[in-house]
Amino acid sequence: MSEKIYKTGTTPGSGTYDCTNCHTKVHLGSGDTMPPCPKCTNNEFTKE
User: Fold this and answer.
1) Alpha-carbon dihedral of residues 7, 9, 15, 16, nearest 10 degrees?
2) How would residue 1 be classed by pLDDT, with cut points 50, 70 and 90?
3) How much is the pTM?
């Protein structure tokens, strides 16, 4: 089963997201926009 990918610039909702490249965690609130990964600038994340 493949995981849903969340991309930079979208508003995926509150939660913790995991960079698909370096696995850095990004924590978002309900109205926050997904940033590029702060460590590697990757643009794709999965939700924990």
Assistant:
1) 60
2) low
3) 0.91
